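Attaching the record inline, Q. Sequence:
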Amino acid sequence: MNNTEFMNWQTFKGTLAQHPELILQFQYAEGKWVDASYHITEIKQAPIVSVDCGGKMNTWTEVIMQLWEPSVQDSERAMQVSKALSIVKIVEKSLPLNPLAMVKIEFGNSAFDTRQMYPGEFIIEGDNLIINLVPDFTQCKAIGRGERCGTTDSGEECCAPATNTEKTKIQLINLAGDSQVCEPGSGCC
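Structure, as predicted:
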């Protein structure tokens, strides 16, 4: 997933609400599943303000749902979507979540470094609603806007100040005049 089509909170929550009776499962890599005993430990909202390499200010909001696997498995079956929605309801009583915010799922365990991922495809398989998680990635917003970033034809580094193609001319002026010239060892300096 290397595009700018991110799922917003309203769409994510609406998709969950369509399937309250299903079991909510998360796949974080091919054949790798968040353990069925996971907990939704928190839902946080993060307003982001940044300045990119093109000097443009960017703002957006992220809603991040954090999943945690306890060290001792305490459930054979993952939570129902309805339970996840009840956690969302508790959160939204105290923290109104921006419906247009970009959604990320934060997860890690002993075999997988904690990271934020995007909810990708939702799959209904039997009694399960499976959310395939897609890794986060870096991007250059300047290039995304059609501006130039990276190494230029003249070999300048990304984000280097723009160069003036017109050569600067320096005029040299002899401030000492013709009468006095200071030479090494003459004692005038």
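The CA atoms of residues 38 and 70 lie 7 Å apart. The first helix runs from residue 9 to 17.

More tomorrow.
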